[in-house]
Every structure is written in C-alpha cells, then in structure tokens.
Amino acid sequence: MSGENETPSGNEAPDVIFVGKRPALVYAVATLSRLNQGIKEVRLRARGMAISHAVDVTEILRRRFLGDRLQVREIRTDTETLPRGEGPTQRNVSTIEIVLGKSDE
Fold first, then answer.
1. Per-residue pLDDT tens over the stretch 4-30
2. What CATH code is carried by the domain that includes residue 97?
3. Total structural domains within the chain
4. Residue 50 gets which letter from DSSP?
C-alpha cells in the first residue's frame, strides 16, 4: 500500500488528520496539539490497512494523554472506489473517520 492515506486530496480543513504509515504516536501528538489549540473536533481519516492504525491513535490518546477527557463523538465507515494502477478496473477500499473531541472538565 502506498502513502495514499497521508496525502489529502485538496485543501482540507485543519481539523482533519489523514492517518497513514508513520508511527501512531506522531498522529496522536498532532491530534492532541490541535485539540489543545482550541479546535473542538478533530477527524482522523484512514483507508485500507491504515484503519487499524487510526484506532491505535485513538487508544494512545485515551490511555496515555487524555484519559476520560477524550470523547469519541462519532465513527463512520464507508467504502471508496479507487482506480487500479492500470486499465479501466476499479477497486473498493474501506475507510474510517473517527471524530474526537475533549470534554470541557
């Protein structure tokens, strides 16, 4: 799998983090930083094999950094149809979006 998970498809909002192949702690720190900057919700997005990595990021935030203050507000799953490398065929790739926020305690 290429680095397709880490490359946004345009100008994305600052509340979106694309989870890819980098260490999960990198994405956890980026998420924590955005939450501490006052962004109300951060959306972790991942495709294919990186889905489990996005779940790992959420668990790192919960267990190491925020504990009960981390709120998983929504989890959405979907399937994207992407073109294969060559030819007219397409492939289906599972996606996840995890919406995280901090409680105001």
1. 444 444 556 779 999 999 999 999 999
2. 3.30.110.20
3. 1
4. G
- Location of structure tokens 């680095």: 3
CB neighbours of 82 closer than 8 A, spacing ≥ 6?
90, 91, 92, 93
pLDDT for the residue numbered 11? 53
Query: Which residues are within 8 A (CB) of 31 and not within 5 positions of it... i.e. 6 or more apart?
Result: 17, 42, 44, 57, 61, 100
Task: Compute, in degrees rounded to 10, the torsion defined by CA atoms 63, 3, 1, 55.
Answer: 20
Rounded to an integer, what distance in angstroms lies between the CA atom of residue 85 and that of residue 45? 22
Identify the burial level of 1 via C-beta atoms within 10 angstroms of its C-beta, where 0-12 means exposed, 13-18 middle and 19 or more buried: exposed
